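Entry, Tuesday afternoon. Goal for today is a structural model of the target with NAP bound, before we commit to ordering more compound. Inputs were pasted exactly as handed over by J.K., no edits. I checked the ligand SMILES twice against the vendor sheet because last time a stereocentre got dropped in transcription.
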Amino acid sequence: MSGPTITFPLNSETAIPAVGFGTYLISNDDAELTISSAIAAGYRHIDTASGYRNEETVGAGIKSGLHKEGIARADLFVTAKLWPGNPAWGDAPKTGEQTLEECDASLARLGLDYVDLYLIHAPYGGNMRLEQWRALLELKARGKARSVGVSNFNEGHLDEIKAAGLPMPDANQIELHPWSQKPKLLSYMKAHDIAPIAYSSLVPLSTWRVEKGQDSAKTDDMKADSTAFKAMAEKYGVSEAQLLLRWGVQNGYAVLPKSLNPDRMRQNIDLFSFSIDEADMATMATMDRGEGVAWASGDPSK
Ligand SMILES: NC(=O)c1ccc[n+]([C@@H]2O[C@H](COP(=O)([O-])OP(=O)(O)OC[C@H]3O[C@@H](n4cnc5c(N)ncnc54)[C@H](OP(=O)(O)O)[C@@H]3O)[C@@H](O)[C@H]2O)c1
């Protein structure tokens, strides 16, 4: 593996850069400069969502980053996500027609003609879930999304698509780190050529989402274990963040680190000058603690 622009196959025609820049919890005050700085630091993959309520300013950052770096839109991979609604929160599920409109609205806010990947953010669509998926296939056919996929879907949700005889998603974006390894879901995805994209890779760090009010269901046990990866990182002469992100890319998962801090931003894309040896990968494989913690408001796969 070499270079920050390494990609993983997404389907037979497209590939996804192994390191993307996450935009959740980036305020509208910070987004333009932060995204433009990420592009200047070498990120060529930006992950956003209508649910993050920052698409306009993320779009402004993309525009300014591309301009300053003198690179073309085609050299950047952009992911956007449909907010599917959630009846449990009094938010009616989007119909197929509304799904098409939502994608157009996201493109307008981002200032883009197409996205490289459009995802259903969570399986909350209930009896509209398949209709939403059919609409994503239509968006791909119309060229508004080069690839389409889902996020936070479990085997049951993926099976629903399979049973309907529809093409399977190109990708499933899920919480993945040594404390949430989801082996059964990943083996199902591998068998169906669904690429894994890892979010919240940095959950084990004491610095993960420390600001008051940021969504997190981290347990006290996890908080007490915040130096679990320190010795291993020291062995490779890297930060714990780099170790956790390298674990993801070494397993073949694209990762999406978010940081407002320029040093961390640079560090998080510098993952290709070391590799984790087999013994340490085997140790990390034993550290699974279950489903994950990034959605404090409830398990998004339910
Ligand atoms: N599909 C979904 O449901 C879903 C859910 C969650 C996330 N995501 C996507 O995945 C992206 C990443 O997930 P995330 O934002 O939860 O978390 P993350 O990238 O795993 O971690 C971000 C947190 O770690 C800190 N951090 C970043 N780099 C660090 C470093 N080198 N050393 C120490 N601390 C560091 C950041 O603080 P500073 O900013 O202060 O550096 C921030 O608090 C999101 O932004 C979003 O795009 C998707």
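The chain has a mean pLDDT of 94.
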